[in-house]
Amino acid sequence: xxxxxxxxxxxxxxxxxxxxxxxxxxxxxxxxxxxxxxxxxxxxxxxxxxxxxxxxxxxxxxxxxxxxxxxxxxxxxxxxxxxxxxxxxxxxxxxxxxxxxxxxxxxxxxxxxxxxxxxxxxxxxxxxxxxxxxxxxxxxxxxxxxxxxxxxxxxxxxxxxxxxxxxxxxxxxxxxxxxx
Amino acid sequence: xxxxxxxxxxxxxxxxxxxxxxxxxxxxxxxxxxxxxxxxxxxxxxxxxxxxxxxxxxxxxxxxxxxxxxxxxxxxxxxxxxxxxxxxxxxxxxxxxxxxxxxxxxxxxxxxxxxxxxxxxxxxxxxxxxxxxxxxxxxxxxxxxxxxxxxxxxxxxxxxxxxxxxxxxxxxxxxxxxxxxxxxxxxxxxxxxxxxxxxxxxxxxxxxxxxxxxxxxxxxxxxxxxxxxxxxxxxxxxxxxxxxxxxxxxxxxxxxxxxxxxxxxxxxxxxxxxxxxxxxxxxxxxxxxxxxxxxxxxxxxxxxxxxxxxxxxxxxxxxxxxxxxxxxxxxxxxxxxxxxxxxxxxxxxxxxxxxxxxxxxxxxxxxxxxxxxxxxxxxxxxxxxxxxxxxxxxxxxxxxxxxxxxxxxxxxxxxxxxxxxxxxxxxxxxxxxxxxxxxxxxxxxxxxxxxxxxxxxxxxxxxxxxxxxxxxxxxxxxxxxxxxxxxxxxxxxxxxxxxxxxxxxxxxxxxxxxxxxxxxxxxxxxxxxxxxxxxxxxxxxxxxxxxxxxxxxxxxxxxxxxxxxxxxxxxxxxxxxxxxxxxxxxxxxxxxxxxxxxxxxxxxxxxxxxxxxxxxxxxxxxxxxxxxxxxxxxxxxxxxxxxxxxxxxxxxxxxxxxxxxxxxxxxxxxxxxxxxxxxxxxxxx
Amino acid sequence: xxxxxxxxxxxxxxxxxxxxxxxxxxxxxxxxxxxxxxxxxxxxxxxxxxxxxxxxxxxxxxxxxxxxxxxxxxxxxxxxxxxxxxxxxxxxxxxxxxxxxxxx
Lengths: 180, 685, 104
Fold this sequence. Notes:
Chain A is about 75% helix and about 0% strand. By secondary structure, chain A is mainly alpha-helical. Among the domains of chain A are: about 1-80, Four Helix Bundle (Hemerythrin (Met), subunit A) (Up-down Bundle); about 135-165, no CATH class. The longest helix of chain A has 26 residues, at about 50-75. Chain B is mainly α. Among the domains of chain B are: about 290-570, no CATH class; about 575-630; about 635-685. Helix content of chain B is about 70%, strand content about 5%. Chain B is globular, with a radius of gyration of 33 Å. Chain C contains three helices and no strands. Chain C is elongated. The N and C termini of chain C lie far apart (about 55 Å). Chains in contact: A-B, A-C, B-C. The interface of A and B includes residues 94, 97, 101, 104 and 108 of A.
């Protein structure tokens, strides 16, 4: 019963914050609402017995990614495009479409028989990391994925640096010349 | 026994290739090129180190040879090949002169290639060639030998076309490469045949020998005889390609387009002898196949004779030597054809020395005349370039078989073996009855005639180059100079080789060192061959006398014909004309006969098949394009709207899925609607 | 009444729907990216929710996959915002509809 109460509180916060993202004008407010949403999702992870995942959620999403988002928004002064309307004709079309889709999937979900299993393992740090780094021959082999992920992050970083770097002779500098 | 690993031998030239190749690539942008003394030093040091390794190993080699497996190369049920090396009596001899002469010629090239723009590139190629040649000789299985075989072919191509600014050189390189490919197909098919007879591991020489021994001992020869004969013929086709025998010999004269040291190293001393090496290596198989042996012997005979006669008409000094090389290779195959593999390898060995000396001498002559190769514009060089002349004359004595010189021992040995091992074949007549043909005698007589002709054309070369009056222009005469010391030293060393190399196997004075050293690697094959061929012993002195007489006769004819003959004023081209040209190019014409139908087929493929396929392709493509253009008009050209539409589509699909699963009930009015539509349709129809 | 798995799925579905709406209906590029993050989060929640309905070892998979998903989301955000910076520099705008270079 208590778990349900906590869940309802966290769910309302998460969904409310998500709606705030949808409705906020300035990207910065949107980003901050997103942080709230993510933190409450982390709470739900903890509630469900995956504390490790919750901590990672806070650290990576609410910490690192949202830091990046707010930083970029501030650097680029994203408020400058206040001229663009928040919603347009496409929006009027998309919102009902998505809602219908969600409703349909929801119907299917509600019909499906689901129940918590008693023997579920609690995803504590020890258990999770043991499974993740199980290098045994017949093991789950997540460690390979983990290594590949390292490579992916590295290449993403290199790509980001390369793309965001200001290049000589780019369209940017040509545009400047044209203006003169 | 030493603990030196075998892979050191090919490693050094490989390192040299990599290093010099890097230098060549790096310095290609600069105006001057890399410093010549550094590049030259490097280029000589790597082959020299390899030679040192071979020498050390050769001294401590046990009788049965050294075997070493580096790693597995190919391993699946049909084929098992290791990368391994085999250092026995045969590969020892080959390696000694390949690396030794390779080092000397690298040294010589420093002088010859001085000032050339591609100096570093040249030496990178030379090192790569030595690496491939060492792999060819040292490998312990046929597939790795084939790797080296292709490697030397590649280097030959690269070096013939070394001065690639000239279209003629490029064409010569292409010709060499393509003609060699024909032979290589024989080699490959031969390997396949062998695999089909002997199983997965038979490509290894040791297993190959055991397998052949097993066939022989078990008396199973008649079971596999047809296939084995085919294998032998295919391998021999491979050898004719590499060793320039009839019918695949046309590439070697053209290969003289490369720098002269290359001609000396690749197209005279080492690469072209790899065919002889292969036949000797597979002697165990060839000795069981009398028909193939006969084929080899006769091909060798015709090649020797034809090339010698052609050599008479050449005006280009290098062309004469090229045809002489072909002729000498013919001798080697003749010897192999009567199961005298050791004699043929011995001739390979001595020939490497004197032919390299001759080519280097020719190179020195060309060098001193600033690139002139036409003998008609030479003459009287004996006084101007005495050392080169001496080298050439000594090598000349060696090649004609003058008593005491290297060629005397090896060539007379071959001639002797031709008679002693030569089979006697019963030739059936068409009308019945048969006559015994003494094949050995035929081979011997032709061989002796070839020896006379050899002396004639080589004498002509020497006389036209070094004696008489200088026939070139006056201003060029002033520039004639002796080659630098760096070129003379290798020449002199090779001259000593061409005088004394023959004493390793001087039957008449009782030295059989060479034969003994090869015995472990070849002995089995010879014994089998000799038992099949019914050897009868002959008196070696008689053959020596006859051989000497042949050489003297040839030299006398050369002196009578050419010494005082008025030499016609040269035309622009060094190629022979008239009936001589017909002799020279007869095999080229025959090749054209083969190439023409291929061209016709290629034309048909190009015009008919290719165009047909293209039309088919275009039709398909056009259909796709039209459909795509039609479809793209439906496209909504805004990303967000597209996404929205696709989500709607997903929603529809989910809806259908839910209906289909029965999770969501279909309302009754839908069924009523469908019914009414049906009845409406029914009434209309 | 106890906490049911279906509640978690419904919540995940709702957040996913909001995320998709944000990503598509908003024209500001920052909102597009944030919407995608939101949708990814909803999927993670769904994973964990379903994991809890499975016994023993099987339930761990559902708790480890979100870890990878989070890491990939980090990589995606990294590259995505670099692209936003690049595009913004070229066009001086963060309006998604103003980029129509690829229009067929």
